[in-house]
Design a protein that fits this description.
This protein is α/β, with parallel strands linked by helices. The protein is built from 9 helices and 27 strands. The longest helix has 28 residues. It binds alpha-L-arabinofuranose.
Length: 516
């Protein structure tokens, strides 16, 4: 008989759950209030890195690739379809070397720079402030600008805010007008540096906390624009960084505190991180184990934040996360170009379920990165575009944007490999503004389908429909030759009988059910 693990997403009411040999038992507590799942956890990140910006979202107006004012039309449509809520730019490590005045004015007079972090290529600054903010308007997303603390100045950052958001007469607002933009843009999310413990200046948390306070003071709110300032946060499990930031900066001075955490199957050592497409089941298991660590990681950081900020005023912003593998053979190692398989979709959906669980604190997250870099949702090759399995999770999960979190109790069979085990299923649920309930279930077990029965508390459920993402092999991927190998399909096998939902969750699949 298989052993079961209690997976708790809320206080467990054991009486409602029955243990059976092969089955999963769930209780969806739709009768209990929950916090809002901010749509901003579905945010994205576009750095001046490899072909994320250049060739990815931007090809320039003269390009034969169909574009609107230089922005690829295919990418615009794909991003609109999944309703991306925010876009972080210009980095990443690039942000702390970026001097925004190099990226405004006539393109031919913009200075060039070396992109020292990413391949040592020449950055011609043809994509700058106007190009980024106009893009956000075109796509219908909130800009999240990350300012330069590492090699910039307080004055430079302060003037950037003025340039972008001030409506009156001022040197920076007038300069913006000279450059063709009369009205200011709205910018909500403002990052004060990036990875200041590393590429953003190699600082101690105490030093950065002081700098943060200094820089943030001069990032002004002009007119009715209200900046939500986000402080650079910890590197993965550096809990001391969070402790110092909460103690020395605190709720009054930052809207959010960030966290960066990547899943690297074989680690950061010289032996390589692991292939994106060619991996064993053992490596798959490790990848999932490492990505599910996000739960413990957030839990630990949140516990620190709760001590200083019990009212949860400071948002926890996981503004860089995702899988980081070896680059595709033959590509520039500095461009971080990797393929994306069904494994990445399972990783993505499982991570989203974890973010949902902490939605009262995690109010922003940005997968790294949007196009052609790391766990990209979109890959491009000249005029071709591929939507990766990860993209389809963003599509499937958009029903959770700004919905009300519903806690789910679950007893899941284990996914076992040799002497290791993980819960096979992970789940989350929400109720949208129309009262429709969505339950997302991930089965990370690559071999075993799992029967599940689900008690729906507080719901008079009549109908259930669903969509599923799966494929024959964990290593399956979408390619430029076969772009639709993995796509969303209708899932018809869930049934409701006398208020109880039952289904079989196929091996290595993600399902979202709509219940009404
Ligand atoms: O996303 C790639 C890089 O990873 C970012 O530039 C940096 O912030 C992080 O180390």
């Amino acid at each position: 008989m298989k052993k079961h693990l209690f997976v708790l997403t809320a206080v467990l009411s054991i009486t409602a759950l029955t243990v059976s040999a092969e089955k999963a038992n769930l209780v969806v507590n739709a009768d209990q209030p929950g916090a809002q799942i901010s749509k901003h956890i579905y945010g994205h990140f576009a750095e001046h890195l490899g072909n994320c910006i250049y060739g990815g979202i931007w090809v320039g107006p003269e390009s034969p690739i169909p574009n609107t004012d230089g922005y690829r039309n295919d990418i615009i449509a794909a991003l609109k379809h999944i309703q991306i809520p925010n876009l972080r730019w210009p980095g990443g490590c690039f942000a702390d070397e970026y001097h925004w005045k190099d990226g405004i004015g006539p393109k031919e007079s913009r200075p060039k720079m070396i992109n020292t972090h990413w391949g040592g290529v020449v950055e011609d600054n043809s994509f700058g402030t106007h190009e980024f903010l106009n893009y956000c308007e075109l796509v219908g997303t909130e800009p999240y600008v990350c300012g330069n603390v590492g090699s910039g100045t307080v004055e430079e950052m302060s003037k950037w805010v003025e340039y972008i958001t001030f409506d009156g007469e001022s040197p920076m607002a007038n300069l913006r007008r000279e450059n063709g933009r009369d009205k200011p843009w709205k910018v909500k999310f403002w990052g004060v540096g990036n990875e200041n413990w590393g590429c953003g200046g190699n600082m101690t948390p105490e030093y950065y906390a002081n700098l943060y306070r200094n820089y943030a003071t001069y990032c002004r709110n002009y007119g009715d624009n209200r900046l939500l300032k986000i402080a650079g946060g910890a590197n993965s499990a550096d809990y001391n960084w969070t402790e110092v930031m909460m103690k020395n900066v605190g709720a009054g001075q930052m809207w959010g505190l960030s966290l960066h955490h990547y899943t690297v199957p074989k680690g950061w050592g010289p032996g390589g991180k692991g292939s994106a497409t060619d991996f064993t089941e053992d490596e798959y298991f490790t990848t999932m184990e490492k990505s599910l660590f996000m739960d413990e990681l957030i839990g630990n950081h949140v516990a620190i934040m709760d001590r200083y900020d019990p009212r949860k005023r400071v948002a926890f912003c996981v503004d860089e996360w995702g899988a980081w593998y070896d680059v595709e053979p033959g590509t520039n190692p500095g461009f971080l170009y990797q393929q994306n398989t069904l494994r990445d979709a399972l990783l993505c959906a499982s991570t989203m379920n974890i973010f949902h669980k902490y939605c009262d604190r995690v109010r922003m997250a940005n997968i790294a990165q949007m196009v052609n870099v790391l766990q990209a949702i979109i890959l491009t090759k000249e005029d071709k575009m591929v939507l990766t399995p990860t993209y389809h999770i963003y599509d499937m999960y958009k029903v959770h944007h700004d919905a009300t979190y519903i806690s789910v109790e679950m007893l899941s069979p284990m996914y076992r490999l040799a002497n290791r085990s993980l819960p096979a299923l992970n789940v989350s649920a929400s109720k949208d503004a129309q009262g429709v309930i969505h339950v997302s279930i991930v089965n990370i077990d690559p071999k075993n389908d799992i029967d599940a029965s689900c008690l729906l508390k507080g719901v008079n459920a009549k109908n259930v429909s669903g969509i599923i993402l799966s494929s024959d092999n964990l290593t399956d991927k979408n390619t430029f030759e076969d772009a639709e190998k993995i796509t969303l399909k209708e899932f018809k096998k869930a049934k409701i009988n006398k208020g109880e939902l039952s289904l079989t969750v196929p091996a290595k699949s993600v399902i979202t059910l709509t219940i009404q």
